[in-house]
Fold each of these.
Amino acid sequence: MSPGRSPSKQLRRPSAASRTARRPLRLAAGLLVALAAGPAVAEIHSHTLDNGLRVLVREDHRAPVVTSMVWYRVGGVDEHRGITGVSHVLEHMMFKGTQELGPGEFSETIARHGGKDNAFTGQDYTAYFQQIAADRLEVSFRLEADRMANLVLDEEEFAKETQVVMEERRLRVTDQPRSRAQEVLRSVAYDAHGYGHPIIGWQKDLEDLTLDHLQDWYDRYYRPGNATVVVSGDVEPEKVFALAEEHFGAVAGRGEEANEARPAADPARGERQVDLRARARVPYLVAGYRVPNVPAADKAWEPYALELAAGLLGGARSARLPERLVRAQGLAAQVGTRYSSLSRGDDLFYLEASPTPGTPLSQLQAALFAEVQRLAQEAPSEEELDRLKRSMAADEVFERDSVFYQAMELGRTVTSGYDTDYLDNYLDNIRAVTPEQVRRAVAKYLVPQRRAVVRLHPRADKEDAS
Amino acid sequence: MRPFHLLIIAGAALVLPAGAPAMDLPIRTWELDNGARALYVHRPQLPMVTVQVDFGAGSARDPENRPGLAALTFNLLDDGAGDRGADAFARALDGLGAKLATGSDRDRGWVRFSLLSEAETVRQGGELLGEVLAEPRFVEQALERERRRQVTGIRKDREDPHQVAIKAFYRAVYGDHPYAHPPEGTIEGLRRVERGDLKDFHGRHFVGRNATVAVVGDLGAERARSLLRRTVGRLPAGEPPEPLPEVPQQESGEQVFVERDISQAHVLMGQPASERGAPDHFPLLVGNYSLGGGGFSSRLMEVVREEHGLSYSVFSTFQPLARRGPFLAGLQTRGDRLGKALGLLREEVASFVADGPTAKELEAAQKYLTGSFPLRIDSNQKIVDYLAMIGFYGLETDYLERFTGRVEAVTRPEIRRSMAERLDPERMVTVIVGGPAARDSLDEGER
């Protein structure tokens, strides 16, 4: 699990490995203090079709390419025991044929036009994307409109693809002790709420999933009124809108309303702690506090204060946890935080850490929570907070280097149920948070009774030490 | 060197319509006084600059009894430099909004630095970068701390079947060659490292004649030259390192089974194959797309995943290095299906090496690789990656300009010839990490 804006999600096709920084890179965007930078947020152009489909465009003319995405507001949060994993399996099945195309022809067509394509499922959404030459956008729209309206679900393809998804689950979770710990964490942090289930689904639910479940899910959620098309890159908004009208306009509305469900979780009532013994070689600890997102907060500034708290604790190399737990006290080998105010439901504020050799996990845990407590009792200095805001501001510029990321951020914002002004106002909202507000948010929300903790312990194994 | 322009070449064989937009990517190169080679692209649209410095100081340069020294050196570079301790350095970086990352692999170690292009930021950032390159402190306490982290990382890798497989693969394939051990090293090796080792390593390898630097972003040529003089230019000229030994030919095939209590079996199969700058780079690139590099367009995906549902991820890849880097094909599948999956993998690789792609497959590969080319260079970060690679491996600076043309020129006989020269399925190493069900499945034979 890496700190970052995106929640854990499943990719349809494993992405190519990339060289990564030794320390996990940073968190969400922030205030732009340096005047040299241009507008912090590239302008967002919006248009809605009669059938309810919204189309968003961000221009970036540095290269003759686009990222074209279709986002559906459905994900793990909409699922329940018995059908967990259905959103993700449906994502896989979306590549298996329509009335027009046979299985695999979607990707084959995109590749022929020099495009890459993939998809992913998150807790709040399912999204499909192509990265392709700007002058091939039409191909992307034509194919996406086709599978939005005309997906064909085939029993034989489904049987095979469920096997593939089970292999994915084995690869990502079953044989990875830390992923397993994170899965356990979510299941104890929530009672019946969708966030408590893994996006990839529980193994038993995957075995029991039927084609009818998928058809029902598709009919219910894959509608223009519950979808957003996002395009970033070397395009002109008006032309994109015209192209969208041409290809998506004909897709029947089937009820224009978007999925407005924001399933409420049972309030967090009392700390939960789990000791998990598994095939780990290094102890590991992950904790999650049940905290509100933007719509659910008592005060509008609270989620932004929490984002800053996550940054102060673990969002940069000069953050408190690396400085104190790693460098000064030598208790942690790795430590990080993660929180996003952008979600459909009340998500978790995460802390994770692994100890240095010889440090008991209990000692690391105590030190970790002591740092949270410190921030609850004493507001950060203006200097410390300002340094974080400057670091976040620079991130905003670096993020604009990625055409893909520009579309990703936009799609995620809107599909989580926020309007685009969340992005426009984000910097101002972050800038406006005072040190005292950070302290108050931490004191109110990062408390034991909202907390779940999983401690992963290596178990004695017959495997040799090599 | 004169700048040049990169054009997407429209031709009858390509899908791109006439009038496909051209993309200017003029690359300027020069040599610093200390012999370091610089590659630069001016890209002012975003107010940011990215600099990457690469040194011929990867794990292949680890002293024989200190595997992991290179990685540890690079991990420690930003843990205090110049007059600043780790905390002060961290605050200075974050205060500027600058991002510093270091890393290493078998061939090289790098420092990557991104910052906003505003003048004062660049001035201060340059100071920090210069300190990291020329004056790392390698404080004893930091060494202890980083050593423990790196050791913890090695232990953690043992939880990950893929890491177990990769490490076993390289050991089996490279034997005594410096490429055999993992870049992060071994626990025993790291425990032997002393501060003097770090200083020696730094002194020997962080020299101009062992350095290339890539700069991309909102910095005019003069400012770029000035920045590099103040940073990379601080290093002594030094000597380039000795060339690495050749990788010996694989004598025979081998199968290695590593038992772990996991539900899947992980397979990695391959052999040393190609080096950077090889003349058959493009036939191998294009050929591999059809075999297992092209995702859902590849034979391996088609057969192992789409047709049989056996694996989520199945692939093949060439990973060229300064000396022959490996060809790798792999998959993961439920333990009891190992026999079947491995059989299919071997069959597909062997038949591809023997016969190469069909005409239709070749056409699809060429369409994809030429059509998707703009995606390779659509961000400052990606351009830095390419410049660093071109510079470090001494590729022709027109590598990007000629890319699509060279893809288009590849023929089926060329692919067959290159594959046959580079690959011999009989002499490949197969590493399997799996549990008892996987072992049983293997013993039953491949059906």
Amino acid sequence: MKNIELKHKLDLLEPLMGFIAHKLNNSLAIINGYTEMIQLENSNNEKVMDKVNKITQSSNRMSDFILQLLLLSDRCPLAFKCIKVEKFIEMLSVNMKDILNNRFNIKATDTKRSLIIDADQFGIAMSSLINVFNNITDNKCTLEFLSKISDDELIITLSFAKTRYKFIDEGFFDPFSKESGDLKEDCLALLLLYSMVKKHKGTIDVKCIDNNLKFEINLPLK
Amino acid sequence: MGKLKTILFVDDEVMLTELAECFFEDHDDYDIVVFNDPESSLDYFKNNHNSIDYVVCDHQLGELSGLELTEKFIAINERADYYLITGNFASDISSSEKQIFKEILIKPFSFTELCSLFDNKLA
């Protein structure tokens, strides 16, 4: 498995991921439904509500995890649409604000150009990565978002400061290349962003300099 | 005083239909009828379509999709409001096909959220 290209590995696992996500989603719907009823029936009971809130927080995390699995599976084919770069960045900035509050900065040029993209799914993939870095840095990481057009490609640079990374190894995006004990919380989000860029016929590269991670994503405009 | 509106709920997951029945059991505004298999729900709808106000279908029902089932319901009576529940982004449904639904809900969804969608209709 280690010697097979990552994209091919993902293709092989897509149906299984979709099946797992579907089953988990159904179970989560049931947990959420009964939790909802307990909330409605005990809204005046602080002790019960505290416990119910913990269940809700955990099920929200589970829901994010399942969404990542779904996007990696074969159950969410991309819906490509033409969107202005300006609009795309606006969508991404809403997500960044939700997660990072004001711990991010955006610089974008040539935003009047358009690109063909599934903005919803791509936005979720990017948000998943931002979210997980935010969590593992205890809400301390910051993000510089740069975007420009060059040779009919949209180039997005994401620079995360204050991450835990001191270096990156070959197979950074590839959880299959690591021993199970080396897998960290960001492995699924990294895999998802990699997969999403590849599905859009783009490229992604990453560098680590002084605890700062810099992703460069190139997406063809057409 | 009788229930105001009737929901027809179709999902092949038995625990989900049990949940739906439990949620609406003592509800003041809605009555619910549930089915786990699309053919039975279709038979029921043929005989009771005039009394059904909302139809909520899961997208994956086995041999028949939620979209296909809804199209069969609409062919009998298009009066009701039709809702689809899906676990993904419903990317396999075209924009024109999505038009037949009042809303498409992504799992996991909340029954309170579903009622608020119905309530907009009541308002």
